[in-house]
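Q: I'm writing up a methods section and want to include an example of the input and output format. Could you take the sequence below and give the corresponding predicted structure tokens, formatted cleanly so I can copy it straight into the document?
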Amino acid sequence: MKAFALVARGEFAWANVPDEPPPGPGQVVVRPTACGVCASDVHYWRRGNIGNQVITEYPYAVGHECAGVVAEVGDGVSSVSPGDRVAVEPGIPCGECRPCREGRQNICPDVVFLGTPMVQGAMRESILTIEENVEPIPDEMSFAAAAMCEPLGVGIHAARLADVRRGENVAIFGAGPIGLSTAVACRARDAGRIILAEPVPERRRLAEEMGFETLDIALDPVEAIRDLTDGGADVAFEAAGDVRAIDWTVRSPRLGARACIIGIPSEETVPVPINAVRRAELTIYNARRANRTLADAVRLINGPARDLTRMCIHSFPLDEAPAAFELSAARADGVVKAMLEFD
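A: Here is the clean output for your methods example:
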């Protein structure tokens, strides 16, 4: 099938990638119509890998934040039919390992995840998935909005994992797609003050327009958050993939509080101020992707989280993916989420 794929590190072109087999029992074929550019996609484009996840063969289609139209269904599928508009969960867990049996499919070691080497991603004609991984979307919801269900799912999962409670003060380091998604998820859980620390003025402005407090990291964000929250946040989230942000995330909560690391730093090993963590008896969570959040994400984006789609002000046709990736990598022109829309 045709894909607008990586044909070498840093190089996109139209290419042929392997066809998917016909759908088997419980499987669904989706024709993607929108795909967001994620920071992980940019990693693969620039570096050819994230840690030990390496692109070993080209052409390779990236992309996992997608929505589209059901093209075909296998035997036994009852929740969707050809022609249905759907949001897509990108990870297919094995269903048999201990994490899957414990309901933690997002850390399944054998997950088949769109756009993670060497599983071909969404920037192609069609993808084969399972019925559980598609969620019908309302007629009034755009495909670009539905593609935002994946990053919102990451925020929903992180907020669940860190057990954000009514009235709690939340600090989030990073006001990009994951930081804003986490903020929206915390607001849906009736958190109190939600403060996003972000260096890019356009991202701070968007966060403020969405009803959140912001601060510039140049102002010593740890002290600023402690001052704003009377001693420290109840929960802090790292959503920037930055070593400094990890440090701030574990130093900004109050004593006995919680922190959650979501971002993916380039470094394999990062320093942590262990004495500060120990003295505070800080509980640290690490969030990986999302875990069965698709239905909740569709509901939120169609309602209280509708303004999350405001981050998608940069839209490109699929064959202009290089411009979208360049823009995303440089964080230029106030970009928050670049969206690719297919013909």
